[in-house]
Amino acid sequence: MATKTHLQISLPQIDEEILTLLARRERVSPARMATRLVRRAMDIEEDLALAKLAEKRDVPGAKRISHDKFWKAAL
Question: pLDDT tens track of the chain, all 75 residues?
């Protein structure tokens, strides 16, 4: 079972108010809403990093592999 790490953060008042409004809209606690938003942000950062890597590797003459072949090798 995964353990949880607690992280204490400070937010400007306006950000805390927005977080609270978002949490109420979704009927979750502000902490749960903050967790969801942090996860989304990390997913976006990962996507940006992978896109940057893909652009770097997308050069003339680069070796191409099929989608199926890639996933067979990746798994």
Answer: 678 888 899 999 999 999 999 999 999 999 999 999 999 999 999 999 888 888 888 888 888 888 888 888 777
Interatomic CA distance for residues 38 and 45, integer angstroms = 10
Cα atoms in the Cβ-side hemisphere of radius 13 Å centred on 12? 2
Rounded to whole angstroms, how far apart are CA atoms 30 and 19? 6
Tokens of 37: 């938003």
In a domain? residue 13:
no
Report yes or no on 72 lying in a domain. no
Cβ(44)–Cβ(52) below 8 Å: no
Residue 64 domain flag: no
